């Protein structure tokens, strides 16, 4: 098990849980590029779409699953965390909520900041593990 990757995935899952609570309470719908699904935010979250303050729930579940499997010499868990972190960062940046065009509550601002932090942590943990795996393979070959 890769502890830094597990810590990053746990931070990401906690951030998604916090963002889900804030998004549902304040009805902050996900509106990437101005596109919005009809209906209530809680329903969007349940379907796995997420909200303006929450990554879709399959993402933290996949990140945690990958982090638990990491460390066995395979680069796949690291790549999964790297990809999820990258998508989280992109998704956060394209939300109107991020740029203050929606709710400006303190809780929503904190959720946005935590998503940027946790996405960055996943990217860095995934990069670190990928590089470490490549280094160990090159040492074995030499």
Descriptors for this entry?
5 helices, elongated, mainly alpha, 142 residues
Q: What is this structure, in a nutshell?
A:
The protein has 142 residues and is mostly helical.
Secondary-structure map:
Blueprint: H1 3-26, H2 41-47, H3 58-69, H4 76-93, H5 106-141
Task: Please explain how this structure is put together.
This protein is mainly alpha-helical and 142 residues long. It has 5 helices and no strands. It has helices spanning 3-26, 41-47, 58-69, 76-93, 106-141. The mean pLDDT is 89.
Unreliable segments of 5+ consecutive residues: none
For the largest beta-sheet, the strand count, sense and barrel status come to: none
Arithmetic mean pLDDT = 89
- What fraction of the residues are assigned to beta strands by DSSP? under 5%
The helical percent reads 55-70%
Structural class: mainly alpha
Report how far apart the termini are: 26 Å
**What is the β-strand count?**
0
Rg for CA atoms: 16 Å
The count of helical stretches stands at 5
Number of domains: 1
Helix/strand order: HHHHH
The best one-word shape is elongated
